Records
---
Amino acid sequence: MQETHGGLRERQRAETLQRIHDAAIDLVRDEGFTAATVANIADRAGVSRRTFFNYFPTKEDAVLGAGPATVPFEALDGLLDGPDQLKKATLVVHAVASSVRHVRTDEPVRRALVKSIPELRARGGQHHIASQELLAEALSERFDADDAARATALVMVGSAVLRYAYTLDPDIVDDPDSPALTAAVELFRTTLKDLT
């Protein structure tokens, strides 16, 4: 019975997160970013301001559908072992970057809003930096100093691969098996070999 209660609670939490995000997007699209205050978003979502802040720390996060990143520690296993370390590193970065998104988003709408609203770009940048710092901390905890330095360098290259792949196909956020991601890994692998 406990699992059912926990499952219900999680489902209700996910529904409330989604409702707040959808209300924030609708307000920004209908009335503009300035009019999308926390109070107005909460009102449209049918929640109190206190509830809003239990789910999102800022209105920017509500619009982005974003929250703190997480590191899938199991993805760090084998990062420095075996073949295709660049692909592994890129997938680790992808997993951490994707974890920032806490709700389903209409990606073309979200991208258009981020492009047109400087505050959303700035907040997205803050999430990017925080996720990189979180990943660097996880690497330093997981590996000894030499391996942590190597893993950090590898993940930094993986981050560049992911950024390049995003320019080819912005929908890679939802698809770690995207052909654009595979093509970007191959291009970087070839380019790095040519540099040596």
---
Amino acid sequence: MNHTMDEIVNELKGLPDNELTEILGLIRAKRATYHKPLAFVQELMGFRYLGPVGEHHFQYEMRVTDDLLNRYGLLHGGLMTAFIDTAMAETAFLIDQTVERALTLNMAVDFIRPGMLGVLTADIHVVQNSKTIIVFQGSVMDTKEQLLATAMSHFYKQPHRPS
């Protein structure tokens, strides 16, 4: 074992089983990103595409776990924003196969209710899709169908470049 591995093992000694299980989950989430197009934070969120729900509407979900809560026991607002941003970017790839990168130009998020443990659903609506810019409107609901947040955003569509 190298020096770093020894340090890791020493830090893990004496931790309760539930904390070791959480750490194992983080390690697995990190490793999963090596073979998928998702970022580590998307793995932590349990980000998933649910499908289209009408013309220009797409749905996604995330799992709010203890790891994503702030000191008040609520979903961290930055992670709610990351969920909406990720769902909008993924929608850009779904509606336009010429997009290599979907880059957020701006985003306004209004937080209405706090996110709690459980599953959240994002409904993303394509407002406008021009040659270089996509305008999105989004909302996030909890399992009780309570509105938690709304957002409006503009994304730049960076096209695939010839090899």
---
Amino acid sequence: MAGKTWQIVLAGTGGQGLILGGVTLAKAAVLEGKNAVQTQTYGIQSRGGYSQSEVVISEEDVYFPKCDRPDLVLALSQQGYERYRTIVADECIILYDQDVVKNTKRSHDVGYPFSTRVMDIGNVKAINSLFLGSVLKLCPVVSIESLTKVLEDSLPAKILAINLKALNIGYEEIG
């Protein structure tokens, strides 16, 4: 019997932590004994240009490192949403920042106010932990405990608590 493979795209603007989010998700998968590949695309600007991270996680070997049939797309910008809304399968979930993405076309997409909530949390740099919690709730590819462990092992103590708070808020408030 073939093992399950998940494909997740994190799309938005440079500086939103999309690449770090993809790396963190891949590390959590490896921690659970799964195979993971993370690739990234970004413009010449380090902040403000289009950016995306693709993560393929599988219980078997990964032979193709790109997301050709995503299970979930996170769109933190209008450009990220527009890029995927017409090419993903109907069953693909598009999770979008409802503060930024307007004129959504698919009735089953999921909006969440990422930009507002991260300001409420108190640190805009915690947006990647916030969106990872939401991604996990909608596409439980790894456990929240594994993701928490990766954050604990990766982040300095001075920002760990706020990132764990953001992770849990994102997880609890979606769906």
---
Amino acid sequence: MFDSIAPAYDFMNRAMTFGIDRLWRRRAVKMMRDVAHSDVLDIATGTGDLAIMMAKTMTDAKITGLDLSEGMIEIGRRKVAESRLDDRISFQTGDCLALPFADNSFDCITCAYGVRNFENLAAGYKEMRRVLRPGGLLVIIELSTPPSALVKPFYDLYTRYLIPAVGRMVSKDTRAYSYLPESIAAVPQRERMCQIMSEAGLTDCRYLPLTFGTCTIYTASTK
């Protein structure tokens, strides 16, 4: 599915969020500035938007982008080359539930809009915990359902009807953007997400709602 939507993925991200997704990423990157993170793993990197933003902001970081979709990674490599960041960002295909890295390999792990697609969220967090070094930082950006009763009806209308309709026109994939509202509704959110992270062995789990709660940034660390 993700290979088929790769050519339209960046456009749809901007269109669906009216460009706010860039602000969400920028807010997440700011949270990483106080941590020594020379080795960063960006899981579900997609076309590399977050990896590129981190490389431009965190000038000492070496970033590995991991994704199951070769189509996404191919676009990411082109974007990195155009940004002249080839020496700082590398890509490889891999499974988030069986990360192809040794224990304690990274100072920081990020994942933007990806954990809701994990087949086993708890197992995914345990793998992240395994490859994070002691004192490492985990930063998750994920779409979420707004808790406000005033906002939710408009949000439901937008995600259930408008986004799938535009997605079908732009990406020509009838599954990808119809699946989006279902995946957002199904993923654990806020306190429950932090509980799963804690049960996986991560510590100091916190969350920050953004834009009426339509996006949430989660952070956690390792001892």
